[in-house]
Specification:
This protein has 140 residues and is mainly α. It is built from five helices and no strands. The longest helix has 33 residues.
Length: 140
């Protein structure tokens, strides 16, 4: 039997030890999930606060970039506005904004894979997912 390097000093746990370690891991995992949920809730509340005192202006009512400068927005709206404005001069901001709105280009590997799948389907009437790879066979 082949031995994996660095495993010679490991001991096999008894079923009771394994159960106890699994229980402790589950408790720690649940605590981490609760903390993450709590942080997400707090952050959601914070970014929904207005930037200034008074009534928050609905973004749909704003008609120009100049109006944004004086509008009382939520922190979230202000952050998105700043991201949009920075995308004019920053490639990273532009990429983040473009990807967020779902207009990112298909990467070359996805395009190549899709083209191969389409060719296989056209030639054989089947796809690789069908479990058949008949690309070398040309239908008569």
């Amino acid at each position: 039997m082949a031995s994996v390097a660095g495993t010679g000093n490991l001991r096999v746990l008894t079923p009771e030890e394994a159960r106890e370690q699994g229980r402790r891991g589950g408790i720690a995992s649940a605590k981490a999930r609760r903390e993450k949920r709590s942080m997400n809730e707090a952050l959601t509340m914070i970014i929904s606060l207005p930037m200034g005192k008074g009534k928050v202006i609905d973004l749909s009512k704003i008609k120009s970039i100049d109006d944004l400068k004086t509008a009382n927005l939520t922190l979230k709206d202000k952050m998105l506005t700043n991201l949009a404005l920075r995308s004019l001069t920053s490639d990273l901001s532009f990429t983040l904004l473009r990807d967020q709105i779902g207009e990112h280009p298909i990467d070359a590997e996805t395009m190549r894979s899709s083209a191969i799948d389409n060719l296989a389907t056209a030639l054989t009437g089947t796809t690789e997912e069908d479990g058949e790879d008949n690309i070398d066979e040309v239908p008569s």
